[in-house]
Amino acid sequence: MKWKKVWEAVPVNYGTVIGCLENVLLRMRIKVNAQSENLRVVFSNRYGNEEMEISAAFLSQAGNTENIFTYEENNDENRKSVYLKGNKLIKIPAGSLRVSDAVPVRTKSGSTLILDLFFRKRTPISSVVMTWSDKTWSSAFFRVIREELTNRRNRNDWNLLECKEESCFRFITCDTYEKKVMVGVEAILAEVDDSYQTLWLWGDSLTHMGFYSDPLMDLLVRKHPGHASILNYGINGNRLLTDAPLDSSIPGHGLMYGEAGLQRLMKKLEGDEKPQILFLLEGANDCLLGFRYKEKKIPDIFDFITAYNKIFSVCVEMNIYLLVGTIPPLNVSEEIWGSRAEALRSEVNKWIRTWFVKNNIVDVDKIVGDSEDPLREDPDLCLADGLHPNAKGGQKIAQGVYGAIKPLLK
Question: In whole angstroms, what separates CA 202 from the centre of its chain?
Fold first, then answer.
């Protein structure tokens, strides 16, 4: 048996305070595909500038109710306190992660976990985990109106009032599409069999939003119960080749777009447990953001080839099965530089289809592309921006990825 990640998401670093929690309970719903008797929570203050204090944390399996965000539904014997080195008060130093003590919560294939974090002390937040699809995980915030400390079942009892994320994080109202956020945690570990498999999804907002990762997780739960999981490492606005651009119009001036995806991946592979499969779907922002921000250096096909070759070589060395996705249409035909961006995308896709063998490719471009216009996505499969897949498009991408990895799964 080994401790392995059965859920993880990437904290987005804004580089500035974007909100504050005080007397707030954060409730998270997280689906896992693992058979285990014990779990650990990876608490995160990765990008914080001061110590984060979580006054209490509880972990449980969701009950049979559909409305799991009604707090009282899980206010029972099933809820287990989460400790850090035997302490109920959890303190995470700035710039750090902390792994909890083992929590005796039993899981099975498709189990839904409920993780509660109580922030009593005023806590400035500069980093959050986000999802738009909110099927594998979601969240809700509650104002603690009255806190009653009791010794009964060694827990806290609260009088709660649900509140909107906007009241804690003002920036959320600036997003075109509704999303859910969480703070203070970035992974769940489970004690599972040595043969347990993980699939890393690496990319930008096409991955980050969750519209294909969530249905892919559902496929694993149904067809490979308890044997494999999805770890989503997408970051909205991320580029494969280049760090975040400077954008003074958003909090933190664009730092949220993150370090270049290639460098992120190399660092992750150096210090983390390795996946059995890596699906790379990234490059759309490399094709368009350089033009949009009028940067001096615009990437060319040789930059992409160098990056892909490096990733391929590392995967071969580490015995990781690499799966590559083609880049879908950018929907920039009306921009003065749109034809140049689309030409670069087309050149990259042509190289992918030529260089990689068919079994290592998920042709996302063809999956969601409009059959009548190669520069557009099928409007039934994308959001209103014409770039990001919607739930229907995500389902089709998930089916494409699953078809490619099915022979590798147990």
Answer: 9
